[in-house]
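Hi Y.,

Following your request, here is the sequence exactly as I used it, all 165 residues.
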Amino acid sequence: MNAHERFIKDVTDSKINTYDYEGHKRLTPQGLFFCVMVEETVKALGVEDITAVIAILAGQPVLPTRGKFGGATKGTSVASRVSRALFDYDFQQNILPTLTNKSILAFRFRMVNNLGVFIGRWTPMAGWTITAYDVVKISVLTILHYNQLVNPEDQINDATAGSLG
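Below is the corresponding structure, written out as tokens. Let me know if you'd prefer a different format.
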């Protein structure tokens, strides 16, 4: 037996922990983690996620508009059109900070005086915020749940999960 064959034999003979979970037999730690992540994702996806997707999509500038100044985002969104119709209130001055697809790249706020424009431009940002929250929540809950199921040597020692559980 040469060194390469001995290495392969040592690897295959080493003890790898396996787990049974929800009808799945002999899962590796990685397979178990994947199953737990899928379960936590399914549990977390609810009305908030539908709201997030709708807000993100409704805030995209897909509707045509008349001419705009250079540097402006082309088009307008469904959220902007609807909120302008529902909340058509003008303030005396441009006091409401907004971001567009172009201005967010430079993190440059555009000030507006119309409440409807303000709401329409912040709608997709609310959707992205909900989505970011869901990603963090799913990640933390997955690690906590996984660590409860596995042996100590297979646990994920994450600082975030460690401080929560």
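The mean pLDDT is 81.

Thanks again,
Q.
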